[in-house]
Amino acid sequence: MNVSSMTDRQRHTLRCRSASHLHLLGSRTQHARSAEANEILINEGSMPSRVLVIDSGWAIRYKTLADGRRQILDFLLPGDMVGMFAILFDQTEYGVQALTPLTVRSIDAKHVIAELNRSQQFAITLNWLAGSVEQRMDEHLMRVGRRSAEERMAHLFVELHRRLKRSGLPDTAARRLPITQKTIADHLGMSQVHANRTFRSLVRQGTVSLSDGEILLLDPCELVRLAGFEESYLCHTPACVNEQSYSCA
Amino acid sequence: MNVSSMTDRQRHTLRCRSASHLHLLGSRTQHARSAEANEILINEGSMPSRVLVIDSGWAIRYKTLADGRRQILDFLLPGDMVGMFAILFDQTEYGVQALTPLTVRSIDAKHVIAELNRSQQFAITLNWLAGSVEQRMDEHLMRVGRRSAEERMAHLFVELHRRLKRSGLPDTAARRLPITQKTIADHLGMSQVHANRTFRSLVRQGTVSLSDGEILLLDPCELVRLAGFEESYLCHTPACVNEQSYSCA
DNA sequence: CGTATCCTTGAGTGTGATCAACATTGGTGG
DNA sequence: CCACCAATGTTGATCACACTCAAGGATACG
Predict the structure, then answer these.
(1) CA angle B37, B43, B44 (to 5 degrees)
(2) Do A88 and B47 touch (CB under 8 A)?
(3) How confident is the model at residue A244 (pLDDT cuts 50, 70, 90)?
(4) B143-182 burial, b for 16+ CB within 10 Å, e for fewer?
(5) How far apart are CA B195 and CA B192, in angstroms?
(6) Which residues of chain B between 213 and 232 are close to nucleic strand C, CB under 7 A?
(7) Which residues are within 8 A (CB) of B230 and not within 5 positions of it... i.e. 6 or more apart?
(8) Least confident of A48-62, B126-140, B153-167, B226-240
(9) What are the domain boundaries of chain B?
(10) Distances from the Cα of B218 to the Cαs of A17, B179, B196, in angstroms?
(11) Relative to the CA of B125, which of A106, A115, B11, B197 has its CA 20 to 30 Å away?
(12) Confidence at residue B14, expressed as pLDDT on a 0 to 100 scale
C-alpha cells in the first residue's frame, strides 16, 4: 500500500497508459494527418478544439510577444500529446508548429472530454501526465533562469537524447537532432548568434557536430558532465502510485 | 458537451471546485498546522507524502543546483495547492519553503489518491488545475527567457497583484508584496544586485515603493504598460474577465 | 549593543546582444 | 545551366546589460 512499493513492471504500465489509452480512444475517433515542416498546427490564441498526438517528426510549443520575440516552451517528440489541458479553457495560450514533416493524430476535444467523463482511469492517468510535464518544465525553467549558456545547451541536448531514446529510437538515431540554431536560441532564451558561438564551443570540445543540417551528439557522457545533468527529473518511469488505488477501473 | 458551449457560470463552478473539493476532503482528513517564515515545508528530493493547501501567508516552490544556485519556480499564495502532481511519483523534485509565517492544511497522499479513485469529478477538476498552473508556468518561462529585466519585474508584480485579488484580498492589501529582492532575483533569474537596480528604476518611475520591508504597488496600470502585460493567461475565469479595475486604456 | 538580514551604491569585468558581412546550401525560375 | 533568392551557419566588431566583488547604511532582534 506504500507508494514506494510498486514494481518496475507496474511503473512501466503506468508510463505507457496515457498514450495507449488515447490510442484506443483514437481508434474510434482519431483523425490522422500529416503536416509539412514549419506548418502551424495550433494557432496562438485560438479556441481549443482538439488534442494532438505526435506520431512521427518534431514540433514545438511556443509563445510570442507583440514585437516578435518568441519563446519555445517545449519540444514535442513522437508519442507526445499536446493541447490536452487547453481544452478545459476557452483559449489556447500557445501555438504549436511543426519543425520537421510529421504525422499526427488529432482527436476532437468533445471526444476527449467525453472520455474524461466516462473513464476514471483516463482522468487519473492524465494527472500523471500533468506531473511529468510539470517536472520537465520546471527543469527547463531552472535551465533558462540559473544556468550558463553552455550548461543550458548541453543540458538540453542530453534531455532530448533521453526523451528520444525513451520514445523507442535506437541510440544512434536518438543522437540526431533536427533543429536549427535559431530554434535552440528561442528555446534557451538567447540570441541566434550567441547560440552559434556556444555551439561552436561544444564542437571544439568534441561533444557535438553538425552534419547535413542536423546536430549530432558525439559524447553524451561529456555533455552530462558539462551540464551538471541530474537524471531524476526525467526518470519518472518510476511513477509511484501503488497499483491498487490506481487500477480502479 | 463542447467546451465552448460552457456557460460562464459553469466555468466559475469549475474554477472554485478544486479548492472546495479538497476542502471537503480535508474536513475529514486534514491536518492543519502553522509554520514560521523560512521554514521548509517540503524538502527537495523527498518522498511525496502529502498535499498542502495554503490557508494564509506566502510560500515558494524552488529547485537548487549543486553549487547553490536557486530558481524559484512559483509563488504559492493563499488558496494554492502544492504537491498534488508529485504524489504520483516517488520523488518530489522541488522544495517548498515558507516566505512568511503561514497556516497550511495538509492532506495525506493516500487520502488524496483514494479520493482521486473515488470521485470522477475530483480527477477532472485536477486536470483543470493542471491546465491553469501550466498557463502560469508558460508565461513565467516567457518572462525569464525573452523579457528584459524591467519587463520581467513589472510583469511579476502585476501577476502577483492579480492573483492576490482573485484569492479574495481587497485591492489595497493585494498591492503589498512581502518578498525580498533576493527572492525576486531567484525567481526572475537575475542577481540580487541587479534586482535592486531594476527595482530602484521602478521606484524612480513612481510605480512601486518599499515600505516596512514590503513592496507596495503604486501604479499597477503603469506596470501593466511597462511589462507589456497580456491579461488572457490569467483570465481563465469569468471573474477575471469582468474585473474592471485595470481598465487603464 | 552586537549580530544578522536586507537594501543600496560604486567600480570593474564579462557574458551575451546587436549589427554587419560573408559562406554555404537548396530551391526556383528563366 | 545559370542567376537568383531564402534560409542557415559563421565570424568579427562594438556595446549594453548584468554579474561579481566590495563596502556601507538601515532595521530588527536577542
Answers:
(1) 125
(2) no
(3) very low
(4) bbbbbebbbbbbbbbbbbbbbbbbeebeeeebbbbebebe
(5) 5
(6) 213
(7) none
(8) B226-240
(9) 3-133, 139-232
(10) 50, 16, 17
(11) A106
(12) 53
d(CA A56, CA A77): 7
Contact residues, chain B, for A189 at CB < 8 Å: 144-146
User: Is it the case that residue A248 has pLDDT exceeding 80?
Assistant: no
Cell of B114: 483514494
Q: At what angle do helices A181-188 and A192-204 cross, to 10 degrees?
A: 110
DSSP one-letter string for A32-91: EEEE-TT-EEE-TTPPP-EEEEEEES-EEEEEE-TTS-EEEEEEE-TT-EESTTGGGSSS
Q: Are A185 and A192 in contact (CB under 8 A)?
A: yes
Q: A56-60, A95-99, B11-15, B188-192 — which is least confidently predicted? A: B11-15
Chain centre distance of CA B119: 26
Residue B85 Cα, gap to closest chain A Cα (Å)? 5
The helix/strand/coil state of A187 is helix
User: Does the predicted model carry a pTM greater than 0.85?
Assistant: yes
Which residues have a Cβ under 8 Å from the Cβ of B77 and sit 6 or more positions away? B54, B58, B160, B163, B164, B167
pLDDT tens per residue across span B17-39: 555 556 556 556 778 899 999 99
- Start-to-end CA distance of chain B, whole Å, equals 36
CATH of domain A139-232: 1.10.10.10
Selected for mutation to probe chain B from A82, A88, A128, A151 (highest B CB count within 10 Å) is A88
Per-residue pLDDT at A238: 36
Res. A207: pLDDT tops 60: yes
Q: What is the CA radius of gyration of chain A?
A: 19
- Cβ distance A140 to A184 under 8 Å? no
Domain B3-133 has CATH 2.60.120.10: yes
Rounded Cα–Cα distance for residues B220 and B172 (Å): 11
A163-191 pLDDT tens trace? 999 988 999 999 999 999 999 999 999 99
* C-beta separation of B182 from B192 below 8 A: yes
Q: Which of B86, B94, B131 sits opposite A89 (nearest CB)?
A: B131
B182 Cβ within 7 A of any nucleic strand C atom: yes
Q: Which nucleotide is nearest to B204 (CA to C1')?
A: C8
Higher pLDDT, B140 or A13: B140
First to last CA, chain A: 17
A65-75 tens-digit pLDDT: 999 999 999 99
> Average pLDDT in the B71-91 region?
93
